[in-house]
Automatic annotation (TrEMBL):
Taxon lineage: Bacteria, Bacillati, Bacillota, Bacilli, Bacillales
A GO CC term attached to the entry: plasma membrane
Segment forming the signal sequence: none
Family of this protein: Belongs to the binding-protein-dependent transport system permease family.
Any single GO BP term: transmembrane transport
Cell location: Cell membrane
InterPro entries: MetI-like, MetI-like_sf
Protein name: ABC transporter permease subunit
Alphabetical list of Gene3D superfamilies matching this protein: MetI-like
Natural source organism: Paenibacillus sacheonensis
Keywords, comma-separated and alphabetical: Cell membrane, Membrane, Transmembrane, Transmembrane helix, Transport
Segments forming domain ABC transmembrane type-1: 72-278
Membrane topology qualifier: Multi-pass membrane protein
Pfam family, one: BPD_transp_1
Membrane-traversing stretches: 12-35, 74-98, 110-133, 139-160, 181-206, 258-278
């Protein structure tokens, strides 16, 4: 094939190769920094390949493995339970909003949209959760605040509106009730949209540390992100307060940047493993919902 005819294809391939490298190189850089010594980072900067492999950052992060495993367990438990409940709850609201014959559609739509613009604020929320609902120091305080996200509800409603109403009418004629239509018809047809919302919701639960900072005081209920957040604060405090350190530790270089990257690897690893399972649903079922003749 002549070069002139192959030029557009070569340009497209080059653009996608560069785009792929721009996504992969930062991950390799983070992994490399996590295995680098703090002195090497200060003297030579960041490298794609460590000059000398150093495991001090991981030794610091994994200093208490039982506590770290418990934090992983809490984060996984909250993420899985929270995602399942949240997706099911938001799917029910989105299905009601997508039905043109729902009598309270306008009022519910206004309520969902209003909560996107205004909220009660931090102090009323804290008083409500701590004093009235008594959810402090429970796993539910990490799950319930993200149970319904207005933006995800509206996004899922738009997806469900594309499902032909003729299917729902046919099911009603056959005697199916609303719950059966929702669980056996709507949810399978909305699988690509549900997978997208589930991925975003799981990332929100997994990356959250703010709720733990506010409401969790029991050590056995601390999730992973909050535990890593406290570790990073401890390193920053010790680094900036050398006068308060013991005499034998004043000349030590704490793993600040390398520990930060090691924490990023530990925190992002499970999500990188989960994402391919959701990616399958992004590709499959794009034409699901069409009426067969």
């Amino acid at each position: 094939m002549p070069l002139k005819k192959r030029a557009p294809q070569l340009i497209i391939h080059s653009v996608f190769i560069l785009f792929g490298l721009s996504c992969v190189i930062p991950l390799i850089s983070v992994l490399s920094i996590s295995f680098s010594s703090e002195v090497d980072i200060i003297q030579n900067g960041y490298r794609l390949i460590p000059h000398l492999f150093d495991f001090k950052a991981y030794a610091y992060v994994l200093y208490r493995p039982i506590q770290l495993l418990n934090a992983f367990k809490i984060s996984i438990l909250v993420s899985v339970i929270g995602t399942l409940l949240s997706v099911l709850f938001m799917a029910g609201i989105s299905y009601a909003l997508s039905r043109q014959d729902y009598r309270f559609k306008n009022g519910l739509s206004f309520f969902v949209f209003f909560t996107m613009l205004f909220n009660g604020g931090l102090v009323p929320s804290y008083i409500l959760i701590s004093n009235y609902l008594h959810l402090k120091n429970t796993l539910w305080v990490l799950i319930l605040p993200y149970l319904a996200v207005p933006w995800f509800i509206l996004l899922l409603r738009s997806f469900m509106q594309k499902i032909p109403h003729d299917i729902i009418e046919s099911c009603m004629i056959d005697g199916a009730n609303e719950f059966r239509i929702f669980y056996q018809i709507i949810l399978p047809l909305a699988k690509p949209g549900l997978a997208t919302i589930a991925l975003f919701t799981m990332l929100q639960y997994w990356n959250d540390w703010w709720l733990s900072l506010l409401y969790i005081e029991e050590e056995h209920l601390v999730p992973l992100q909050y535990m890593l957040y406290r570790m990073m604060n401890n390193i920053s405090f010790l680094t900036s307060s050398t006068n308060m350190m013991p005499p034998g530790m004043k000349n030590m270089t704490l793993p600040s940047e390398s520990a930060r990257m090691a924490m990023a690897i530990l925190a992002a690893g499970p999500m990188l493993a989960v994402f391919p399972f959701f990616q399958k649903y992004f590709v499959r079922g794009l034409t699901v919902g069409a009426i067969k003749g």
